[in-house]
Write a structure and sequence with these properties.
With about 190 residues, the chain is α+β, with helices and mostly antiparallel strands. The chain has 6 helices and 9 strands, in the order ααββββαβααββαββ. The protein folds into 2 domains: about 30 residues, no CATH class; about 100 residues. Bound molecules: zinc ion (ZN).
Length: about 190
Amino acid sequence: MRALNAASGWRANVPGMSQHAKGTRQHTIGAPLRGRGILAEREHDPYRDRGKPPEPSACPDCGVVFHDGRWQWLTAPPEAHPQMCPACRRVRDRFPAGFVTLEGEFFHAHRGEVMNLVHSHARHVREEHPLQRLMEVEDRQDGSCVVTTTDPHLARGLGEAIRHAWRGDLAFHYEQGQTLLRVHWRR
Ligand SMILES: [Zn+2]
């Protein structure tokens, strides 16, 4: 919603996006989700566009607290209304907002280092942005890896952090009114 709109200028600055956006493997990523209709077009993020929860609310799964109009890592007051946060709902529904595909010979040879960066970057982001989390890391038979996230910003940030560290080819492809981002990095 608000953050996504503010970031709508991002796409113009992404070199190579259109060149790589139509990756041949897109239909294979997030395989467990196929057949549930979740890849249908959606104009809005169904996890963020709902009405705001009462304050204070606390997520029974992760403990994040809705306060001052946003989800924050706070200690939940005893009277907090239990309400699952958007990130935990996405995890429960297995409905990622970001897919980061990592592939190539370099990735294959340096997988450990790259994945360390993925996890450390995600930990850092999660502290500042409680709804931006890793969901799953799926290793595929061809040696590539797909990381899913609860928020497109995290997917983008992961791709940029990896490119910053090791260069390589990075591409972004937004879908569904920019509520879903597919990131491909290859080196
Ligand atoms: Zn939660």
